[in-house]
Give the backbone structure.
Amino acid sequence: MVTLTIDGKKVTVRKLSTVLDAARKLNIPIPTLCHHPELSPYGGCRLCIIEIKDLARPVTACTTFAREGMEVITTSPYLEKLRKTTLELLLSDHPNDCMVCERAGDCTLQELAYFYDIRENRFVGEKRPFIKKDENPFVERAMEKCILCGQCVRVCDEIQGVGAIDFAYRGLKTKICPPFEKDLDCEFCGQCVAVCPTGALTGKMWAQKGRQQDVRTVDTVCPYCGCGCNISLHVRRNEVIRVSSKEDTINEGWLCAKGRFGYEFIHNSDRLTKPLIRISPKEGFEFSSQSPSFNPPPGKGGNGGVRSSPLTPHNSRFKEVSWDEAFDYIAKRLKEIKDSYGPDSIGGLSSARCTNEENFLFQKFIRAVIGTNNVDHCARY
Amino acid sequence: MAGLATVFGSGAMTNSIPEVENHDVIFVIGSNTTETHPIIGIKIKKAVRKGAEFIVADPRKIDLVRFANIWLQHRPGTDVALLNSMMHVIVREDLIDKKFIETWTEGFKSFKESLDEYTPERGEKITGIPQKDIINAALLYGNAIRPGIYYTMGITQHTHGTENVYTIANLALMTGNLGRESTGVNPLRGQNNVQGATDMGCIPDCYPGYQKVNIPGIKQKFEMAWGVKLSDKIGLTATEMTQAALKGKLKAMYIMGENPALSDPDISHTIKALKSLEFLVVQDIFLTETAELADVVLPAACFAEKDGTFTNTERRVQRVRKAVDPPGEAKEDSWIIMELANMLGYKMRYNYIGEVLLEAGKVWPAVAGITYRRIEKIGLQWPCPTLDHPGTPYLFKGGFPRGKAAFTTVKYRPSEELPDNEYPFLLSTGRQLFQYHTGSMTRKIDAMNKVSPEAYIEIHPDDAKQLGVNDGNAVKVSSRRGSIEIKVLISDRPVKGMVFIPFHFKEAAANVLTNTALDPICKIPELKVCAVKIELIKQT
């Protein structure tokens, strides 16, 4: 353990902690753009500069190890002037389109520009144009907004172990791109989107769905695999418009493509919306090796296709009924079958997709109401 | 699960997700973790970055192989031979934990003798792995201090799946690698709440909390709790229900949120069975392939439209919260069940859904300490018997629920249906990253379909050459049960002689081909091994 003084306050941290870690422990805010606690220190944005006693020049807090007896100053007119200049330089090449930017209100760069009151920029010069051409369906890359903090590069390499992107070119031409500037072709986990401190990387499906206004977040659990990642659903007007994850969760804020971008089924127009009762005999729906096309079947439209068009076969198979009618029918048929063949002639399949409560009630229903132990779920597939 | 439950007295992941990064040796067998459990995959990569040694055993060159110190590419279905010969080496090198074996286990002596014949030479012959790799892997695991074993359906979806699990348990027991932090055996559960559905008693032989239906005392307890007479006859598993329906013994089914018409092995069979039912109720969020065969279809709410809890693969009970209203007249599954129960004359009334969890806690003490208030921010891992209990991150600290854990002697036996002259290729099925299960959710998402538009069959380059097929060619793949048309993807992922098809796509449904042969103990079908032939259809 080492003890050091930051802005006159003593703090003890573990060996090999950085000055930035120590300051965060004391809740002293130091601005950063390229730092992420789970990634290796980078020292690229130069905003976390600090002064250390007996050191001639400021150094970056994120790459300086805390040493015994160190005396650190995190803010002074001199440091703030340097930080403001650095920010101005970053912004000199940044489109001021916060009005329409997806990340407005949730953007570290915008927040810092606000705190340092950067209204006009002393530096005017060349800007990096970026032509959007990436066809991938998940990650929107507006690289003219990129400040080259490198968090996406590091998260892709160090956390995801993929290394789909890296720095290319030098100087003003520096950019972050996939090999040979091709389209992004990766696991689409969106870790890069989650760590991006600006509007350079966003979700394609977020566009124009809502930012901060009228949006509330609901913490819940991902519905896909068994990892049980904690996710936050961003909801606007009864619609899930975005999924994110907090860093203090069991999954540390990391998600996969399904967890982060796989939410649109919730509002799909094929969702069932009314109970249905069969009106024609069971036929059709065969698997055949002669199926002519590899294309996924077309969407069925409202209420599983029943309401969509008179031409769809589903329309002739089912009719929409009220809940009461459906319940009456089910109760009647189950009773008949139980009376004539006994309870063991009925079986129930529950779901690994449903909640514990629903599963508890389901097996209780099959066991206590129907009277059989014929209850299972798909644990084996 | 039945396998681990028999050995230890409790079947679940013995460690928790945060512990993954602190293993010093990780052994992944039969799990394509980065695609099926991406976040645990991230944790494994983190452990490797922190210096853990890493062994991967998989017939396919899965992505994790890039990070592995040793990759054991065994022939599908030869896991028992591989693990037994690893254990042979561990005994020979005297890397067993004698104290642990004496204190916590039984039956080691006869088990040890059964390993004699599994020399690495024999292991190499059966599995196709060079014996030096088997020996190195055994030494790595045997010398580890905090090793963890991870497996999924690659181990269990075999006719000898339970035996595979026993073998894994044997390996952990003989080296004393259980009951400590970051040390254990971890089956990864494939679906968000498959752990919870099993915990809550949606299995034919157990009430909630793995309490057997055919033990009189337990039945009485539940009869008292629920106020009705109950059956003591063990029920039918999902696969047995299909058989019973075909034989005309099962007349009606109620299916909530499952799609057996696409996920079952040999689905033509399953569809026939579902059609032969006198009455079928399907409750789901979409008109699935199964729902299309139903007499009544009930519209259900999805995860974002209801309150409740899911239990993840590390036994952590976590809060699910309602974010939006269900579409149209769709309702929560719980509401539907309660209404129907009331209609059939059995009172089900709860003031709020959390009371159901409290009721579960009354009949199963392991979750008695879990309330919605306690898991508001972070979930609790069962066992959590009292309101002040902090939950249990890792199992078997200081003993097993059944007292002593038993070694099980397991002999290698080949899979039911192996390639022959007529059907020369070995087919394995599984998942891929961008789709999920039968695709009823993910295939409704345009972005997912764009990166994963269609089914494919992975074929080794040498086999492709021999067959005369190229990337993108359409081929007809047939087994003794049926045939499908599918596109070729030439890939060095599968071992030569093996092909792989993801089972998400209904227009080329892998489960038309798969074998329904069951594991005799836990009734899991052999989805990972069957024999197929491949014929070119047309040049594209």
User: Anything to note?
Assistant: Chain A has nine helices and 16 strands. Chain A touches chain B through 128 residues (CB under 8 Å).
